[in-house]
Specification:
By secondary structure, the chain is an alpha/beta fold. It contains ten helices and twelve strands.
Length: 253
């Protein structure tokens, strides 16, 4: 098993880090640059920064946010939100991102994944998959786009397989049912994705206590553990999570 990595996530809106529950009820959670520097010092392995309103507002990721954050960290930075073309990827990588995360645009045009992977290398291409429970889907999980506002009547797990075939390097599934609840990752959803692909899978949505991280790795099959609320509101320290996982016998980056 690959060493487990810890990845704080900066959800961005109006220049501030924010955090919601089920993709709504948004609250401010600090300054992105201060948070990024803090997380690197705390031992984060990677950092995600998602411009959560970009697609809804029909605009591109704010490049100044990427530049400001990338200046203060050396760990890999994955940037998502409003990335809909190779030109967008060019700009985001040029602004200092190490990787990009695409979602709605990839669903609209899956060939974008292939083109991006061919041009930049699959290790730079993450596909984010937002989903919610729907028993009408074969896997029980329906794909949702546009910042969690638009169900698209596609099976989320089947889509993960397509993403791998098209050349994605990482899959980042987020359960809308678990997002921001601190009630634990959606293990059935994470496991469904990790069982369907051979790529690294990022567990996302719902981390609230140390045990949740362990379950995401062991039961969910994730190798990258993303969390926001527990870190932003200083409920857990990154080193505490890593120590806990090591004590439970896991290999940690």
């Amino acid at each position: 098993m690959q060493p487990i990595k810890i990845m704080p996530c900066l959800d961005m809106k109006n220049g501030k880090v924010v955090k919601g529950v089920h993709f709504v009820d948004i609250k401010e959670a600090g300054d992105p640059v201060e948070n990024a520097a803090f997380y690197q010092a705390e031992g984060a392995d990677e950092l995600a920064m998602l411009d959560i309103a970009a697609t809804l507002e029909n605009r591109k990721t704010r490049l100044e946010w990427v530049k400001n954050v990338s200046k203060v960290i050396k760990i890999p930075l994955t940037v998502g939100g409003g990335i809909a073309s190779l030109e967008d990827i060019d700009m985001v990588l040029s602004a200092g991102a190490s990787k990009v995360s695409m979602n709605s645009a990839a669903v609209k045009d899956p060939s974008l994944i292939r083109k991006a992977a061919d041009k930049y290398g699959k290790d730079k291409i993450t596909v984010a998959i937002d989903a919610k429970r729907n028993t009408a889907m074969p896997s029980g999980f329906e794909l949702v786009v546009s910042g969690g506002t638009l169900p698209v009547a596609k099976d989320a797990v089947a889509w993960a397989k397509v993403c791998q075939e098209m050349g994605a390097g990482v899959i980042l599934p987020t359960s809308m049912d678990g997002d921001g609840t601190k009630a634990g990752y959606d293990i059935p959803f994470t496991k469904a994705i990790s069982s369907a692909v051979t790529l690294p899978v990022v567990a996302s949505g719902g981390a609230g206590k140390l045990e949740d991280f362990y379950e995401a790795a062991v039961e969910g099959g994730a190798t990258i553990l993303l969390a926001a609320s527990v870190f932003h509101f200083r409920l857990l320290k990154i080193q505490d999570v890593k120590t806990y996982l090591r004590e439970k016998g896991l290999s940690v980056a």
